[in-house]
Amino acid sequence: MEPIVLDHQHVWRTYVNAGRLHGVKDPHYPEEWISSVTEAVNPNTHQGEGLSRDVKTGKTLKELIEEDPAGMLGSRRAAQGGGLGILVKLIDAGERLTIQVHPDAARAKELFGSPYGKTECWYFLDDGCDDVAPRPCVYYGFKEGVTRERWEELFQAQDIPGMLDCMHRIEVEPGMVVYVQGGNPHAIGEGCYLIEIQEPTDLTIRVERTTPTGFAVADEMCHLGLGFSRMFDCFDYQGKTPEEARAACVVPPKAVCKNEVGTCMELVGKDRTACFAMKKLSFSNSGTMELPDEDDFRVLFVIGGSGSISAGDGASVHVAAGDQVFVPASAGSCAVTMGAGSEVLELRGPAL
């Protein structure tokens, strides 16, 4: 098999974008789903929204995997029957996202019958906000002393400032990595531009009835059918100090290898979660970085620069900033050849 270049699947959300996604005209399409086999959960959604497609054949990635699970995913992952196991998104936040929570795996199984929760991790890209003060931020986790009763009272009153004050505010900058375990309330702030890797569901509980720009959020988009009482079962009410919150969510990148071509940095790995993994290849000079054969798939997303990706029987595809490539397990080792200054993310599925 050869590397597969995938299309740009833009997905409708309740929030609006900041105009940074290529080819998007409707502001309510602020996300691009990458190597996705997950359908979006939206009111009046069209069938297959969010499913990535091979630009050459038009087949969905989901169809290609179903046709050859071992070849696409690797023999070990195919034998486990868990599928791809991840969903990757490019998120362009033109406003603060509504305060929300995603279930962890146990709650997802209990409340939604889903084998996956929605633990996620964010890698922040250049957001064009270098001269903006204060910096874009995220809200994460409850402060100490916040109870379920208090949280429900704030929801009933739709006291948004009160709800935001219950969470820790953390300023973010390009290159920063933030990990959000399922069950923790959070909100991505206005101006953030990021890559998200997560478990492959679209299970989002929202506690704001109206977005910051005035879009009314339907009941179903708040509680996903659970109702306005049971949805509060999804939250983890264990409060944290500011230091504990930052230690829980901010992940320090670490160098995996470095040579004359560039550096490979681990952004999130097994020491933080078994749900997914993410690395960044940074090219200080033009050249090639080799990715070994591991009997597993990999997703490559080009943050910046241009070059080529080759695998399998020497098959090569040209890539530039914004391109996404799925490298099947049967393609074996992979060579990423890029120009100086290029950056490429390598995204992997759950630990085997």
Mean pLDDT: 95
CATH level 1 class label of the largest domain: Mainly Beta
As laid out across the biggest beta sheet, the strand order is 1-20-17-22-15-14-13
CATH architecture of the largest domain: Sandwich
- Morphology: globular
| Structure annotation, total helices | 8
The total count of strands amounts to 22
User: What percentage of residues falls in helices of 4 or more residues?
Assistant: 10-25%
What percentage of amino acids are in beta strands?
25-35%
Main sheet properties: 7 strands, antiparallel
The rounded Rg comes to 20 Å
CATH topology of the largest domain: Jelly Rolls
Q: Which stretches are low in confidence, meaning pLDDT under 50 for 5 or more residues running?
A: none
User: How many structural domains can be distinguished in the coordinates?
Assistant: 2
